[in-house]
Amino acid sequence: MNRRNKTILVIDDEKSMREYLKIIFRKDGYDVISAGNGGDGLGLFENNQVDLIIQDLKMPGLSGTDLLRAIRERDESVPVIVITAYSTWDTAVEAMRLGAYGYIKKPFDNDNIKSVVQRAIESRGLAQAGIDKDFADIIGDHAGMRRIFDMIKRIAPTDVTVLIHGESGTGKELIARALHRGSLRADKQFVTINCGAFPDALLESELFGHVKGAFTGSVGDKRGMLEVAHEGTFFLDEVGEMSPQMQVKFLRVMENQEFKPVGGTTTRKVDVRFVTATNRDLSGMVDNGLFREDLYYRLNVIPIVLPPLRERMEDVPLLAGHFLAKYASKMKKDVRRLSPEASRMLKNYDWPGNVRELENSIQRAVALSDGDVINAEHLFLHGTHPGRAGIGRAPLADKIRPVLAAEGMDLEKELEDLERKYLSEALSMCNGHLSKAAELLNLTFRSIRYKVKKLGLDRKAFVARN
Protein backbone atom coordinates (compact mmCIF):
# COMPACT_ATOMS: atom_id res chain seq x y z
CA MET A 1 0.00 0.00 0.00
CA ASN A 2 1.37 3.42 -0.96
CA ARG A 3 0.93 5.77 2.00
CA ARG A 4 3.18 8.62 0.84
CA ASN A 5 0.31 10.71 -0.50
CA LYS A 6 -2.01 10.12 2.47
CA THR A 7 -2.65 13.23 4.55
CA ILE A 8 -3.46 13.19 8.27
CA LEU A 9 -4.99 16.25 9.93
CA VAL A 10 -4.19 16.57 13.66
CA ILE A 11 -6.42 18.89 15.74
CA ASP A 12 -5.32 19.30 19.36
CA ASP A 13 -4.89 22.34 21.61
CA GLU A 14 -1.64 20.90 23.05
CA LYS A 15 1.26 21.93 20.83
CA SER A 16 3.46 19.14 22.20
CA MET A 17 0.86 16.55 21.20
CA ARG A 18 0.58 18.00 17.68
CA GLU A 19 4.35 17.92 17.24
CA TYR A 20 4.61 14.42 18.67
CA LEU A 21 1.99 13.04 16.27
CA LYS A 22 3.69 14.79 13.36
CA ILE A 23 6.97 13.07 14.19
CA ILE A 24 5.63 9.52 14.51
CA PHE A 25 3.42 9.66 11.40
CA ARG A 26 5.87 11.49 9.15
CA LYS A 27 8.33 8.70 9.94
CA ASP A 28 5.77 6.31 8.47
CA GLY A 29 5.52 8.33 5.27
CA TYR A 30 2.32 10.27 5.91
CA ASP A 31 1.89 13.98 5.24
CA VAL A 32 0.72 15.65 8.47
CA ILE A 33 -0.95 19.05 8.89
CA SER A 34 -2.21 20.40 12.21
CA ALA A 35 -4.37 22.96 13.99
CA GLY A 36 -4.59 24.09 17.61
CA ASN A 37 -8.38 24.47 17.83
CA GLY A 38 -11.56 23.19 16.25
CA GLY A 39 -12.28 26.25 14.12
CA ASP A 40 -8.84 26.28 12.50
CA GLY A 41 -8.98 22.52 12.09
CA LEU A 42 -12.30 22.73 10.27
CA GLY A 43 -10.81 25.34 7.94
CA LEU A 44 -7.85 23.09 7.12
CA PHE A 45 -10.22 20.20 6.51
CA GLU A 46 -12.29 22.24 4.06
CA ASN A 47 -9.24 23.49 2.13
CA ASN A 48 -7.13 20.33 1.93
CA GLN A 49 -7.55 16.78 0.69
CA VAL A 50 -7.51 14.98 4.04
CA ASP A 51 -7.49 11.19 4.33
CA LEU A 52 -7.81 10.90 8.12
CA ILE A 53 -8.32 13.14 11.15
CA ILE A 54 -6.94 12.72 14.67
CA GLN A 55 -8.73 15.13 17.01
CA ASP A 56 -8.84 15.88 20.71
CA LEU A 57 -12.21 15.84 22.43
CA LYS A 58 -11.71 18.62 24.98
CA MET A 59 -10.62 21.89 23.34
CA PRO A 60 -11.43 25.60 23.84
CA GLY A 61 -13.88 27.19 21.44
CA LEU A 62 -15.53 24.69 19.13
CA SER A 63 -15.91 21.54 21.24
CA GLY A 64 -14.58 18.19 20.11
CA THR A 65 -18.08 16.73 19.67
CA ASP A 66 -19.26 19.77 17.69
CA LEU A 67 -16.14 19.53 15.53
CA LEU A 68 -16.73 15.83 14.92
CA ARG A 69 -20.35 16.54 14.00
CA ALA A 70 -19.28 19.30 11.58
CA ILE A 71 -16.69 17.06 9.92
CA ARG A 72 -19.20 14.24 9.45
CA GLU A 73 -21.72 16.66 7.96
CA ARG A 74 -19.15 17.71 5.35
CA ASP A 75 -17.71 14.30 4.48
CA GLU A 76 -18.76 11.05 6.16
CA SER A 77 -16.11 9.04 4.35
CA VAL A 78 -13.12 10.57 6.17
CA PRO A 79 -12.30 8.48 9.27
CA VAL A 80 -11.94 10.42 12.53
CA ILE A 81 -9.97 9.07 15.48
CA VAL A 82 -10.76 10.75 18.79
CA ILE A 83 -7.99 11.02 21.40
CA THR A 84 -8.70 12.30 24.90
CA ALA A 85 -7.26 12.43 28.40
CA TYR A 86 -10.77 12.93 29.81
CA SER A 87 -12.37 9.65 28.84
CA THR A 88 -15.78 8.77 30.25
CA TRP A 89 -18.41 6.21 29.33
CA ASP A 90 -20.71 8.92 27.95
CA THR A 91 -18.05 10.62 25.82
CA ALA A 92 -17.07 7.27 24.31
CA VAL A 93 -20.70 6.47 23.42
CA GLU A 94 -21.22 9.97 22.01
CA ALA A 95 -18.04 9.91 19.90
CA MET A 96 -18.94 6.56 18.35
CA ARG A 97 -22.57 7.62 17.84
CA LEU A 98 -21.35 10.64 15.90
CA GLY A 99 -19.32 8.38 13.64
CA ALA A 100 -15.79 8.31 15.05
CA TYR A 101 -13.74 5.45 13.63
CA GLY A 102 -11.80 5.00 16.87
CA TYR A 103 -11.59 6.31 20.43
CA ILE A 104 -8.19 6.29 22.15
CA LYS A 105 -7.32 7.38 25.68
CA LYS A 106 -4.25 9.51 26.39
CA PRO A 107 -1.53 8.57 27.07
CA PHE A 108 -1.56 6.05 24.24
CA ASP A 109 0.78 3.41 22.93
CA ASN A 110 2.51 4.38 19.67
CA ASP A 111 1.98 1.00 18.05
CA ASN A 112 -1.70 1.10 18.98
CA ILE A 113 -2.48 4.48 17.42
CA LYS A 114 -0.37 3.67 14.34
CA SER A 115 -2.25 0.40 13.90
CA VAL A 116 -5.65 2.12 14.26
CA VAL A 117 -4.65 4.81 11.73
CA GLN A 118 -3.50 2.24 9.20
CA ARG A 119 -6.68 0.17 9.60
CA ALA A 120 -8.81 3.30 9.23
CA ILE A 121 -7.13 4.39 6.00
CA GLU A 122 -7.27 0.87 4.56
CA SER A 123 -10.91 0.62 5.63
CA ARG A 124 -11.71 3.86 3.83
CA GLY A 125 -10.15 2.47 0.67
CA LEU A 126 -12.29 -0.65 0.91
CA ALA A 127 -15.41 1.42 1.61
CA GLN A 128 -14.75 3.57 -1.46
CA ALA A 129 -14.55 0.35 -3.47
CA GLY A 130 -17.87 -0.72 -1.95
CA ILE A 131 -16.52 -3.79 -0.14
CA ASP A 132 -16.15 -2.74 3.50
CA LYS A 133 -19.67 -3.26 4.86
CA ASP A 134 -18.80 -6.63 6.43
CA PHE A 135 -15.99 -5.08 8.48
CA ALA A 136 -18.05 -2.17 9.83
CA ASP A 137 -19.26 -3.87 13.01
CA ILE A 138 -15.83 -5.20 14.10
CA ILE A 139 -15.03 -2.57 16.70
CA GLY A 140 -12.71 -2.71 19.68
CA ASP A 141 -9.80 -1.08 21.46
CA HIS A 142 -9.19 -4.06 23.76
CA ALA A 143 -5.65 -5.44 23.47
CA GLY A 144 -6.97 -8.84 22.40
CA MET A 145 -8.99 -7.30 19.59
CA ARG A 146 -6.02 -5.23 18.45
CA ARG A 147 -3.98 -8.42 18.18
CA ILE A 148 -6.75 -9.98 16.12
CA PHE A 149 -6.85 -6.98 13.77
CA ASP A 150 -3.10 -7.30 13.26
CA MET A 151 -3.41 -11.05 12.71
CA ILE A 152 -6.10 -10.51 10.06
CA LYS A 153 -3.87 -8.03 8.28
CA ARG A 154 -0.97 -10.51 8.22
CA ILE A 155 -2.78 -13.69 7.20
CA ALA A 156 -5.66 -12.44 5.03
CA PRO A 157 -3.57 -12.23 1.82
CA THR A 158 -2.44 -15.85 2.24
CA ASP A 159 -4.38 -19.07 1.65
CA VAL A 160 -3.62 -20.46 5.11
CA THR A 161 -6.49 -22.32 6.81
CA VAL A 162 -7.94 -20.48 9.83
CA LEU A 163 -9.96 -21.81 12.78
CA ILE A 164 -11.89 -19.12 14.67
CA HIS A 165 -12.75 -19.95 18.29
CA GLY A 166 -15.32 -17.93 20.20
CA GLU A 167 -18.54 -18.02 22.16
CA SER A 168 -21.84 -17.50 20.40
CA GLY A 169 -22.29 -13.87 19.40
CA THR A 170 -18.62 -12.84 19.46
CA GLY A 171 -18.51 -12.15 15.71
CA LYS A 172 -16.86 -15.23 14.20
CA GLU A 173 -18.48 -14.77 10.79
CA LEU A 174 -17.48 -11.09 10.71
CA ILE A 175 -13.86 -12.14 11.19
CA ALA A 176 -14.20 -14.76 8.44
CA ARG A 177 -15.60 -12.14 6.06
CA ALA A 178 -12.80 -9.74 6.96
CA LEU A 179 -10.26 -12.45 6.09
CA HIS A 180 -11.98 -12.90 2.73
CA ARG A 181 -12.09 -9.16 2.01
CA GLY A 182 -8.37 -8.86 2.64
CA SER A 183 -7.45 -11.89 0.54
CA LEU A 184 -6.44 -12.31 -3.08
CA ARG A 185 -9.81 -14.06 -3.50
CA ALA A 186 -11.82 -10.99 -2.45
CA ASP A 187 -13.48 -10.64 -5.86
CA LYS A 188 -14.69 -14.26 -5.73
CA GLN A 189 -17.44 -15.94 -3.72
CA PHE A 190 -17.62 -16.04 0.08
CA VAL A 191 -19.76 -19.08 0.87
CA THR A 192 -20.88 -20.10 4.34
CA ILE A 193 -22.39 -23.32 5.68
CA ASN A 194 -23.57 -23.86 9.26
CA CYS A 195 -22.93 -27.49 10.20
CA GLY A 196 -25.42 -27.31 13.06
CA ALA A 197 -28.26 -26.32 10.75
CA PHE A 198 -28.46 -29.60 8.82
CA PRO A 199 -28.85 -33.28 9.62
CA ASP A 200 -26.06 -35.44 8.17
CA ALA A 201 -27.75 -36.44 4.92
CA LEU A 202 -28.68 -32.86 4.07
CA LEU A 203 -25.29 -31.49 5.14
CA GLU A 204 -23.50 -33.86 2.76
CA SER A 205 -25.76 -32.78 -0.10
CA GLU A 206 -25.32 -29.10 0.78
CA LEU A 207 -21.54 -29.45 0.85
CA PHE A 208 -20.93 -31.72 -2.11
CA GLY A 209 -24.11 -31.47 -4.16
CA HIS A 210 -25.86 -34.49 -5.65
CA VAL A 211 -26.62 -36.10 -8.99
CA LYS A 212 -30.03 -36.87 -10.39
CA GLY A 213 -31.54 -39.95 -8.73
CA ALA A 214 -29.12 -39.95 -5.79
CA PHE A 215 -32.08 -40.16 -3.40
CA THR A 216 -35.85 -39.84 -3.44
CA GLY A 217 -36.80 -36.40 -4.71
CA SER A 218 -33.49 -35.62 -6.43
CA VAL A 219 -34.99 -34.89 -9.84
CA GLY A 220 -31.87 -33.18 -11.16
CA ASP A 221 -28.21 -32.45 -10.51
CA LYS A 222 -27.43 -29.89 -7.81
CA ARG A 223 -24.12 -28.11 -7.25
CA GLY A 224 -22.80 -28.23 -3.69
CA MET A 225 -21.68 -25.13 -1.85
CA LEU A 226 -18.04 -26.24 -2.10
CA GLU A 227 -18.32 -26.05 -5.87
CA VAL A 228 -20.10 -22.69 -5.65
CA ALA A 229 -17.17 -21.39 -3.59
CA HIS A 230 -14.58 -22.43 -6.23
CA GLU A 231 -11.68 -19.93 -6.26
CA GLY A 232 -13.23 -18.10 -3.30
CA THR A 233 -13.45 -18.56 0.48
CA PHE A 234 -15.43 -21.38 2.09
CA PHE A 235 -16.55 -20.66 5.66
CA LEU A 236 -17.68 -23.68 7.67
CA ASP A 237 -19.41 -22.53 10.87
CA GLU A 238 -20.08 -24.72 13.91
CA VAL A 239 -17.61 -27.30 12.62
CA GLY A 240 -17.74 -29.08 15.99
CA GLU A 241 -21.28 -30.24 15.16
CA MET A 242 -20.05 -32.51 12.33
CA SER A 243 -20.76 -36.19 12.83
CA PRO A 244 -17.80 -38.62 12.74
CA GLN A 245 -18.93 -39.82 9.31
CA MET A 246 -18.98 -36.28 7.90
CA GLN A 247 -15.61 -35.56 9.49
CA VAL A 248 -14.08 -38.39 7.42
CA LYS A 249 -15.57 -37.04 4.20
CA PHE A 250 -14.55 -33.47 4.90
CA LEU A 251 -11.02 -34.54 5.80
CA ARG A 252 -10.64 -35.92 2.26
CA VAL A 253 -11.62 -32.53 0.87
CA MET A 254 -9.09 -30.79 3.12
CA GLU A 255 -6.32 -33.19 2.10
CA ASN A 256 -6.90 -33.34 -1.65
CA GLN A 257 -9.24 -30.42 -2.47
CA GLU A 258 -11.54 -32.84 -4.27
CA PHE A 259 -14.91 -34.47 -3.62
CA LYS A 260 -17.67 -36.58 -5.14
CA PRO A 261 -21.30 -35.39 -5.26
CA VAL A 262 -23.80 -37.60 -3.43
CA GLY A 263 -24.63 -40.47 -5.77
CA GLY A 264 -21.85 -39.49 -8.17
CA THR A 265 -18.88 -41.50 -9.39
CA THR A 266 -16.71 -38.72 -10.79
CA THR A 267 -14.28 -36.83 -8.57
CA ARG A 268 -14.39 -33.04 -8.85
CA LYS A 269 -11.54 -30.69 -7.99
CA VAL A 270 -12.12 -27.50 -6.03
CA ASP A 271 -9.85 -24.56 -5.21
CA VAL A 272 -11.00 -22.76 -2.05
CA ARG A 273 -9.53 -21.10 1.02
CA PHE A 274 -10.94 -22.77 4.16
CA VAL A 275 -12.00 -20.76 7.21
CA THR A 276 -13.86 -22.60 9.98
CA ALA A 277 -15.36 -21.60 13.32
CA THR A 278 -16.53 -23.22 16.52
CA ASN A 279 -17.81 -22.35 19.97
CA ARG A 280 -16.75 -25.74 21.29
CA ASP A 281 -13.46 -27.03 22.72
CA LEU A 282 -12.30 -29.08 19.73
CA SER A 283 -9.07 -30.05 21.47
CA GLY A 284 -11.09 -31.52 24.34
CA MET A 285 -13.37 -33.25 21.84
CA VAL A 286 -10.29 -34.82 20.23
CA ASP A 287 -9.14 -36.08 23.66
CA ASN A 288 -12.59 -37.60 24.23
CA GLY A 289 -12.75 -39.24 20.81
CA LEU A 290 -15.53 -36.95 19.56
CA PHE A 291 -13.52 -35.15 16.87
CA ARG A 292 -10.89 -36.54 14.53
CA GLU A 293 -7.37 -35.55 15.50
CA ASP A 294 -6.14 -35.46 11.89
CA LEU A 295 -9.00 -33.16 10.84
CA TYR A 296 -8.43 -30.93 13.87
CA TYR A 297 -4.80 -30.34 12.88
CA ARG A 298 -5.86 -29.65 9.29
CA LEU A 299 -8.31 -27.00 10.49
CA ASN A 300 -6.21 -25.46 13.27
CA VAL A 301 -3.29 -24.15 11.19
CA ILE A 302 -3.88 -20.56 12.35
CA PRO A 303 -6.18 -20.23 15.40
CA ILE A 304 -7.94 -16.95 16.16
CA VAL A 305 -9.54 -16.77 19.61
CA LEU A 306 -12.24 -14.11 20.01
CA PRO A 307 -12.59 -12.84 23.59
CA PRO A 308 -16.11 -12.75 25.04
CA LEU A 309 -17.54 -9.27 25.54
CA ARG A 310 -17.39 -9.60 29.35
CA GLU A 311 -13.58 -9.73 29.03
CA ARG A 312 -13.40 -6.51 27.01
CA MET A 313 -15.89 -4.29 28.79
CA GLU A 314 -14.01 -1.15 27.70
CA ASP A 315 -15.36 -1.84 24.20
CA VAL A 316 -19.03 -1.82 25.31
CA PRO A 317 -19.50 1.99 25.05
CA LEU A 318 -17.76 2.02 21.66
CA LEU A 319 -20.03 -0.74 20.36
CA ALA A 320 -23.12 0.78 21.99
CA GLY A 321 -22.46 4.15 20.35
CA HIS A 322 -21.88 2.49 16.99
CA PHE A 323 -25.08 0.43 17.15
CA LEU A 324 -27.04 3.43 18.44
CA ALA A 325 -26.03 5.43 15.36
CA LYS A 326 -26.61 2.48 13.04
CA TYR A 327 -30.17 1.73 14.14
CA ALA A 328 -31.23 5.33 14.72
CA SER A 329 -30.28 5.97 11.10
CA LYS A 330 -32.00 2.82 9.82
CA MET A 331 -35.20 3.59 11.71
CA LYS A 332 -35.00 7.33 10.99
CA LYS A 333 -35.25 8.14 14.70
CA ASP A 334 -33.53 10.96 16.58
CA VAL A 335 -32.19 8.79 19.40
CA ARG A 336 -28.94 10.38 20.60
CA ARG A 337 -27.88 9.06 23.98
CA LEU A 338 -28.31 6.66 26.87
CA SER A 339 -29.74 7.73 30.20
CA PRO A 340 -27.41 7.36 33.23
CA GLU A 341 -29.38 4.33 34.44
CA ALA A 342 -29.27 2.69 30.98
CA SER A 343 -25.50 3.27 30.86
CA ARG A 344 -25.13 1.68 34.31
CA MET A 345 -27.09 -1.36 33.12
CA LEU A 346 -24.81 -1.81 30.11
CA LYS A 347 -21.68 -1.36 32.24
CA ASN A 348 -22.73 -3.85 34.91
CA TYR A 349 -24.12 -6.61 32.71
CA ASP A 350 -22.12 -9.74 31.86
CA TRP A 351 -23.29 -10.11 28.23
CA PRO A 352 -23.70 -13.90 27.94
CA GLY A 353 -24.84 -13.38 24.34
CA ASN A 354 -21.81 -11.17 23.62
CA VAL A 355 -21.78 -8.54 20.85
CA ARG A 356 -24.88 -9.99 19.18
CA GLU A 357 -26.86 -9.54 22.40
CA LEU A 358 -25.61 -5.96 22.80
CA GLU A 359 -26.56 -5.15 19.21
CA ASN A 360 -30.02 -6.69 19.61
CA SER A 361 -30.54 -4.82 22.89
CA ILE A 362 -29.62 -1.45 21.34
CA GLN A 363 -31.70 -2.18 18.24
CA ARG A 364 -34.72 -3.04 20.39
CA ALA A 365 -34.16 0.01 22.62
CA VAL A 366 -33.97 2.38 19.64
CA ALA A 367 -37.19 0.90 18.27
CA LEU A 368 -38.99 1.35 21.60
CA SER A 369 -37.64 4.80 22.47
CA ASP A 370 -40.11 7.61 21.83
CA GLY A 371 -37.63 10.45 22.37
CA ASP A 372 -33.93 11.14 21.98
CA VAL A 373 -32.88 9.09 25.03
CA ILE A 374 -32.67 5.34 25.63
CA ASN A 375 -33.93 4.68 29.15
CA ALA A 376 -33.42 1.65 31.38
CA GLU A 377 -36.87 0.25 30.62
CA HIS A 378 -35.98 0.00 26.93
CA LEU A 379 -33.26 -2.59 27.66
CA PHE A 380 -33.41 -6.33 28.42
CA LEU A 381 -37.10 -6.59 27.75
CA HIS A 382 -37.31 -10.35 28.10
CA GLY A 383 -35.20 -10.66 31.23
CA THR A 384 -31.63 -11.94 31.13
CA HIS A 385 -28.76 -12.87 33.42
CA PRO A 386 -27.85 -10.34 36.10
CA GLY A 387 -24.86 -8.05 35.80
CA ARG A 388 -21.91 -8.15 38.14
CA ALA A 389 -23.46 -5.44 40.27
CA GLY A 390 -26.88 -7.07 40.18
CA ILE A 391 -28.39 -4.47 37.87
CA GLY A 392 -31.06 -5.64 35.47
CA ARG A 393 -33.86 -8.13 35.73
CA ALA A 394 -33.47 -11.23 37.82
CA PRO A 395 -32.51 -14.36 35.89
CA LEU A 396 -35.10 -17.01 35.25
CA ALA A 397 -33.29 -19.36 37.63
CA ASP A 398 -34.02 -16.96 40.51
CA LYS A 399 -37.72 -17.40 39.84
CA ILE A 400 -37.64 -21.12 40.58
CA ARG A 401 -39.18 -21.88 43.94
CA PRO A 402 -36.37 -22.84 46.37
CA VAL A 403 -38.35 -25.58 48.16
CA LEU A 404 -41.32 -27.77 47.37
CA ALA A 405 -44.60 -26.24 48.51
CA ALA A 406 -46.59 -28.15 51.13
CA GLU A 407 -49.42 -28.80 48.68
CA GLY A 408 -46.99 -30.32 46.17
CA MET A 409 -46.60 -29.39 42.50
CA ASP A 410 -47.04 -30.59 38.94
CA LEU A 411 -43.38 -31.26 38.14
CA GLU A 412 -43.92 -31.97 34.43
CA LYS A 413 -45.78 -28.69 33.96
CA GLU A 414 -43.23 -26.73 36.00
CA LEU A 415 -40.35 -28.12 33.95
CA GLU A 416 -42.16 -27.47 30.69
CA ASP A 417 -42.88 -23.86 31.71
CA LEU A 418 -39.26 -23.35 32.73
CA GLU A 419 -38.01 -24.86 29.47
CA ARG A 420 -40.34 -22.58 27.52
CA LYS A 421 -39.02 -19.53 29.38
CA TYR A 422 -35.38 -20.41 28.75
CA LEU A 423 -36.01 -21.15 25.08
CA SER A 424 -37.93 -17.89 24.68
CA GLU A 425 -35.13 -15.98 26.38
CA ALA A 426 -32.44 -17.55 24.18
CA LEU A 427 -34.45 -16.95 20.99
CA SER A 428 -34.95 -13.33 21.97
CA MET A 429 -31.24 -12.83 22.68
CA CYS A 430 -30.36 -14.45 19.34
CA ASN A 431 -32.96 -12.59 17.27
CA GLY A 432 -34.89 -15.79 16.49
CA HIS A 433 -31.79 -17.59 15.13
CA LEU A 434 -32.21 -21.27 16.05
CA SER A 435 -28.57 -22.30 15.62
CA LYS A 436 -27.27 -19.45 17.77
CA ALA A 437 -29.92 -20.08 20.45
CA ALA A 438 -28.87 -23.74 20.44
CA GLU A 439 -25.25 -22.67 21.08
CA LEU A 440 -26.36 -20.52 23.99
CA LEU A 441 -28.26 -23.43 25.57
CA ASN A 442 -25.65 -26.08 24.66
CA LEU A 443 -28.18 -27.97 22.53
CA THR A 444 -27.82 -29.50 19.09
CA PHE A 445 -29.76 -27.89 16.27
CA ARG A 446 -32.03 -30.94 16.05
CA SER A 447 -32.78 -30.80 19.78
CA ILE A 448 -33.75 -27.13 19.81
CA ARG A 449 -35.84 -27.51 16.66
CA TYR A 450 -37.73 -30.39 18.30
CA LYS A 451 -38.26 -28.49 21.56
CA VAL A 452 -39.44 -25.31 19.81
CA LYS A 453 -41.97 -27.33 17.83
CA LYS A 454 -43.07 -29.33 20.91
CA LEU A 455 -43.66 -26.18 22.96
CA GLY A 456 -45.44 -24.35 20.15
CA LEU A 457 -42.96 -21.47 19.95
CA ASP A 458 -42.79 -19.38 16.79
CA ARG A 459 -39.18 -18.28 16.28
CA LYS A 460 -40.35 -15.50 13.93
CA ALA A 461 -41.96 -13.81 16.92
CA PHE A 462 -38.48 -13.24 18.36
CA VAL A 463 -36.98 -11.59 15.27
CA ALA A 464 -36.40 -7.88 15.98
CA ARG A 465 -38.05 -5.69 13.37
CA ASN A 466 -36.80 -2.35 12.08
Brief overview:
This protein is of the alpha/beta class and 466 residues long. The chain is built from 18 helices and 16 strands. The protein has four domains: 7-130, Rossmann fold; 149-305, 3-Layer(aba) Sandwich (Rossmann fold), CATH 3.40.50; 310-378, Helicase, Ruva Protein, domain 3; 400-462, Arc Repressor Mutant, subunit A (Orthogonal Bundle).
Q: SSE layout and pairings?
A:
Blueprint (H helix, E strand, L loop, with lengths): L6 E5 L3 H13 L3 E5 L2 H10 L4 E5 L7 H11 L5 E5 L4 H9 L4 E4 L4 H19 L14 H13 L6 E4 L6 H10 L8 E5 L5 H9 E2 L11 E2 L1 H4 L4 E5 L6 H13 L1 E2 L8 E2 L3 E6 L3 H6 L5 H7 L2 E4 L10 H15 L6 E2 L1 H8 L6 H15 L4 E2 L36 H19 L4 H8 L3 H10 L12
Helix pairs in contact: 2-3, 4-13, 10-12, 13-15, 16-17, 17-18
Report low-confidence residues grouped into runs of 5 or more.
384-403
Give the termini separation: 39 Å
CATH fourth-tier homologous superfamily of the largest domain: P-loop containing nucleotide triphosphate hydrolases
Total beta strands: 16
Rg of Cα set: 25 Å
CATH class of the largest domain: Alpha Beta
Tally of contiguous helical segments: 18
Number of domains: 4
Class computed from helices, strands and strand pairing: alpha/beta
Strand order of the largest sheet: 2-1-3-4-5
Largest sheet: 5 strands, parallel
Give the amount of beta strand, in percent: 5-15%
Mean pLDDT: 85
